[in-house]
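Friendly challenge for the regulars: who can give me the structure tokens for this chain first? No prize, just bragging rights.
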Amino acid sequence: MQDQKIKARFIEPMLLKRAEKLSQGPSWTYELKLDGFRAGAIKSAGRVHLRSRNAKVFNARYPTIVQALAAMPDETVIDGEIVALDESGRPSFNALQNYETATLICYVFDVMILAATATREPLTP
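First reply, four minutes later:
Bragging rights claimed.
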């Protein structure tokens, strides 16, 4: 890992790649499709900036998620998915579009920068 401190910023998320056949072997892992909105969170100077995968601002749309992520250290960047759960506790895209009464969850699946330190290579300052 790098010793150089890194400033938190929007990092374009890795997207899935279409394949005819799944790769197999001990070096491969798979994620469940959660049926939500992909979101990245950047915390810098005490503020959380929640962004879509296209860098659109999500702060006003999901203020409870922004508030929940406020405990992250400054200069941190995470990647995840905002999901709404239906009354049975299952992810529901319909509930996400009408989430006033649904439970919102942010599933974090990648921490790219943590407290100004890159967690993967290569990241440049």
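The first strand starts at residue 37 and ends at 44. Helices lie at 63-68, 93-97. Your move, everyone else.
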